[in-house]
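Appendix B. Chain record.
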Amino acid sequence: MHSILVRKQQLVAFMAVAIKGAVRDRVLGAMVVVGLILLLTTPVVALFSMRHVLALASSYSLSIISLMGLLLTLFIAMGLLARDLEQRQVYTICSLPISRATYLLGKFLGFAIVIFLAVAILGCFSAGALFVLERIHPAERAFAWGGFFIGLWFQYWVLLIVGAITILFSTVATSNFLPLALSVGIYLGSYSSEAVHYFVRTAAGQKELGAAVRLFGNVVYWILPNFSAFDLKAQIIYGVALNGRELLLTQLYAVGYLGVVLVLATLAFARREFF
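Structure tokens predicted for this chain:
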């Protein structure tokens, strides 16, 4: 019982360190500034479509949040281990009776809290802009607020998975460039993996592609996260009703994939030699 309590205290301590690092780097302050810009520019961008003002505004808002969230995720996730390695703090930590899994999990949970706050800040500013637009340009069909916030929630999980992947590569890489390049590549490839997998299974794909290429495409599809399942912009824009069963399966998939990546990161970090 005492050991469990000690591990919880250590976990909270590492979470606090990760959050303080983000605050010290003025990450959340930068998100407030970006949120203000988002609030001011959303109505202007939406005016380019007089018939579908809210649809364009919601798509623009989610795209900006996705882009800024990705940049923030890469910036924070790469620094979680790199900062301690550069300052040689990880050598002291590893010499203490502290589990490396506790250290890594605490850092990730702190990162998850910071990303949640950033997405929440940007989401609130975006929702404010959409609320004003809804009053100025009332649409025939009520805006799907539930779908918008669910879309934000799944955007958050995309960022969590990207952050975990970046941390996984950081546990084995000796430079910051490799985790950055691989994480960006996986992020971009994960949005098109489903389309590639579909093409491989079609008659045209069977005819044009060789067996080795089809096998490679299928393997990549099962390894990469399927981020296209998390993208709800089309449903929000066109007012398509969200399927509760599909949302639940997507959530379970996100939890499972994130868990696997964190387990791999923990195993890789436990085997890394620092001395």
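Further analysis of this model is presented in Appendix C.
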